[in-house]
Amino acid sequence: MSAERVSSLSKAIFIAAGSICFVGAFATLNFPALDLGYLLLLCFGILVAPRMTLTLPRSKFAISFADALVLLTFLRYGGQAAIILTVVETSSNCLYLRSRGFPFGRLMIPSNVAINTIATTATFGVWFLISQTGYVSLDLTKTQHLITILGCLAMTQFLISSLAAAVFQVLKDGQNLWETWKKDCFSSSMSHIVGAGLAGMVYKLINYGDVVTASIAATALIVAFLNYRQSIAEINTAIGQVEEAERQKAEMERNRRLEAEEFANQLSISLAKEEQANKALRKSERDFQHAALHDSLTGLANRKQFGDVLRRMIAEYKIDSSSEFQVLFLDIRSFKNINDTLGHTIGDKVLTIAAKRFVRMLDPHDIVARIGGDEFAIVLRGIGSSGKALKVARRIYQNITQPFSLSGNHITVDVNIGIAPCDAEYDTPEEILRDADIAMHYAKEKNNGIAVFTKELRSRFLERVRFEMDLRHAIDRGELALHYQPIISLSDGRLIGFEALLRWHHSEFGMIPPNKFIPIAEDSGLIKPITVWILEDACRQLARWQKISNEYESLVVSVNISGKHLSDNDLIDDVENALQVSRIDPSTLKLEVTESAAMENPEHTIGMLNELKKIGVQLSIDDFGTGYSSLSYLHRLPFDTLKIDRSFVYSVGEGGENAEILQTIISLAKNLKMRVVAEGIETENQLGLLQSLGCDYGQGFLIAKPKGREETERLLYQRPEWLPQDQSDRFEPVHDHVAEEQIHVF
Ligand code: C2E
Ligand code: MG
Ligand code: MG
Q: Are residues 72 and 171 located together in one domain of the fold?
């Protein structure tokens, strides 16, 4: 059973017992013995007594006049009258308290009334025992007897009512009975003691005092009561003020504590914020340092960091020659093409993929860095021999050249790798990197993929640098000149025109062949100004020659255009300019583009050639058969002429072997509606074969070697038979400076 139910049940039992007591008292009440005094007592109990309860300051004691009333009624009118007064007084007291806001729970008022009723009934029982049984003869006129009996009655009433109240409390909250009684109920003893005293005093006055004494005593009592009540009220007010002050102080302290807590909170928040800001600062500092030393695209070390590491390693190697290392310089081949054709986003992704592949192929203690657009460098630690470095480089090469697909494009990355071994002669990172770069350039030139640096490479490189510098001034110094090689019609021997071939007569080293200096010119970008000069010079020359006679009016000059120049839109202006200054018919200028240059970026070539065609110039695909043309592109390229590479002509044997290739190329050209030129005709056999295969034009030493301007002009006036009549060279011996002069090979 729940505690609440037990509490309710016990209250009900008490209420029932109290009701029985009340009914019993009412039934046995001696009504005739009651007088006006009893009525006054009842009125006093209903109206006055509840309002006269005095609560002692800071104590649970309360002095109630109810007990005095009950005991006085007891002495004067007997137990039953006291029981009824108890019921009346307790009820009105409870109702009064409730009207003042005291919170009475369910059944609390009737159970309180019942407890007091039972206590008064018990008191009546004790009185009955004492007075009616005859064991003790009581004489209430005697003060001692009166005090004794009042003491007994008050004690009984106190014990019964306090115990019952304690029992209720215990049933409600399950606490210890003794503790509960001591704590909550003992205090009511004061009320009973004072009540008994008052009752005795009033009883004595009513019964044994005269009116004057009673009046004086009553007045004194009222005055004392009022005084006492006032001083208690004052004390209570003072206490209230103190308590209010204490409460305010406590409130202030609480506020202060809250403020302090709030302040502490704010402080910890701002400390946390400061810590966060510090963290962010430290992070941005780290990021900044990272950015200063790393490449933002690939996350690899940058040139600066690479240089720092290399500098330390060079210093270490000088002290301890066992701390060997190798430096690899890697350059992605044709990366510009990837960027130009697929866009920079794809280009960036290609670089990122390449970087990841490099890292994957290396030991964790090796270092990879991006040191330029498409240039990477690697330090292989602990590797002394170039052989081992070559092995690693080959592994890297194999891995990096694995094709992959990116946004639907199949991409193959190719690299050139140069290797420079550590050497005590190096003092700075730039020196060893430069040598690795030299080796890389050599690999690029030789189309090898990988090359190891040697001292010879360096002198070759230095020579190259020297030539590059000299080439810059070659035009101004008049060291460059054009030689012209005739091109004739193979069917009737008619002179069609010339191919302009560049010659460099170096002031110190003599004649330098074009296949040696043209690549330098291309790498350094000098090829563009040089070609501008060639275009103007060749066109001017042609204009003059065309005027020699009517038969030369439609002579054509072929100018070789480098792949580097072809990718530059300025070429259009350069050609237009040459045509303008020379005033030749555009169709008498032919531009030769090698097959490999045309196929490097076929889409761009198509666009460029179409633009050139609009100007009216002729176009020729040079060295055909060496550049792996895609047929699908070939028919879209607006070439007028196809020039068979001389290696195919050369390979034709005395008995006409390998003629099939020539046949195939000539048929292909015809199908593509192009005229065919064969270059490198050296023998009559080759000439005869080409004629029989229906090749349109020919060029070669058999017909004429390239010659200088004056010699060529002389030939124009001589009007020789260009087609040989017999085995012997019918023309004056030609002097190709390139072939005959001492050539500086580097
Ligand atoms: P190319 O355009 O194929 O020029 C033909 C080359 O074949 C010339 O070499 C010429 O002298 C050579 N040749 C002609 N007939 C014969 C022959 O019967 N037998 C042999 N063995 N060779 C013959 P050259 O003048 O040394 O030029 C070499 C290459 O250098 C040219 O090949 C061309 O690609 C390039 N080149 C020459 N001049 C220029 C120029 O002004 N600009 C550009 N961009 N390249 C040029
Ligand atoms: Mg050519
Ligand atoms: Mg050629």
A: yes
